[in-house]
Structure prediction request, 299 residues.
Amino acid sequence: MVRKQNEQLAMRVSVVTILGNLLLTAFKLAAGVIAHSGAMISDAIHSASDVLSTFVVIAGVKLSGRDSDREHPYGHERFECVAAVILAVMLAATGVGIGWAGIEKITGDTTALVVPGRLALAAALISIVSKEAMYWYTRSAAKKVESSALMADAWHHRSDALSSIGSFAGILGARLGLPVLDPIASVVICIFILKAAVDIFRDAISKMVDRACSDELEEEMRGAVLAQEGVLGIDRLQTRLFGDRIYVELDIAADGNSSLAEAHQVSDRVHDTVEQQFPKVKHCMVHVNPYGGEAGSSR
Prediction:
């Protein structure tokens, strides 16, 4: 039920941002053409890439939410990471294209550069406000459903807001007598976009290589486990990230004179506590050792 609600929230946020980006792209493209601003046209292309990236996010969220099956017994959570990687590559390609166009104008005949009109300035301001609002809206939902793909999309919106700030500065500078600042702004936009792409890519890859959870989270788990009746110690605690979910393996120590049924009850309490107190935990395996011994039973 919770997973279904999270998926519905992610879909609702994605649809809202797609509609917003379509309107913003059309407005910025028209403003860039009418006001003769290369920076604003580059910014419009960036917004258009946001629409495509959000479709990638939708696909990733849908696929990662599918139940386990025979071919994927551990689920499909890593599809979100795959979606984030694709998004990062798309973002980087967009940035390189924008930067290359700006460099060509800078190294060309600068006397032929046209001073952008006021409409381009207004479009840049509207874009900054709109994209920053989309960032916070998407970020809030990403944190609530704990989605790396949705968080990557939020940062895509933030990179667009930053690029619009670059557009505004370049257009304003061009109107003040330095037309070359307009294509320079495109290059600055490229740098912002590439930085966002690298960050998204690194985060997604780190979640695909079975990285352990943070020391702080593992310490919280230790505290929760040791607080359970019958647990005399923890011999081993291992965690690994599988997409945005966590797998936990525990070796706990219990009274060696207790019956198998009693040891199993202790194991059950630990298992249920970990999965209930830490919602990101998809599965917790608990192995029970006799206190001071090695053999035991597992849950």
